[in-house]
Design brief:
Elements (H helix, E strand, L loop, with lengths): L12 E6 L4 E5 L1 E5 L5 E5 L18 E6 L5 E6 L2 E7 H6 L1 E3 L3 H24 L4 H4 L4 H4 L3 H21 L6 E6 L3
Parallel strand pairs: 1-5
Antiparallel strand pairs: 1-2, 3-4, 4-9, 5-8, 6-7, 6-9
Amino acid sequence: MEKGLGLASKTLSTDIVVSKNSAEAKASAKILDAGNSNLKFTIEDESYLPFPIPASTTDQVQTVKISGLKKGFYTLMADNEQVATASAKNWGEGVAIKQGPSFTQIKELREMIVKKNGLHFYQYRPMNETYIIGFRAYEQGKHVKDLEDQSILIKWIESQIALTRAPKAHVYQLVPVSN
C-alpha cells in the first residue's frame, strides 16, 4: 500500500547482539533480561499492526536478527506463544516473524469488521424492506424497532474495533531448544 502511494516502506527489523552475560539492542528493542541463556525483550516501535498479507511479500514482514548466540536451535516466544524456531546461524541472519499475538489480533479485528459490515448491510437493506419501512409498513411496521436495536449492536462492535485496532506491547523471549 505504501509503495502504491509513493511512500518509502518502513523496515520492520529488530537487531540484538548477545554477548556472554548481556545483550544490546541496536534498534527498536528494549532488553528486559539477558541472563541464564534466556533473552527477554520488547519491540518498542509497534505503531501499527502488521499487514494481514500473504507471506510471499517481504516488504512488511517483521524481522528479528539476534547475533552472538551459541550454536544450537532457539525458539522465540511472544507472550508465552511460540512464534518461530531457528538455528543460531539463522537468527544471526534474521528470521521473519509471520505469526504470533499481533497476527491473532489482526484476525480478531478482521472478523469484527466483517461482522459489523454484515449487520450494517442488513440494517440498511432489510430482507422485507417493503413490509418494514416501505409502502406496506402498515402490515409489519412494528419491526422497524428491530432495525433501531441493530444500531446499538453496530455501535458496540465499533467500540470493540476501536479497542482492538491499537497495537499492544508484547514481551518476547528467546529460549534454547533442549534436545
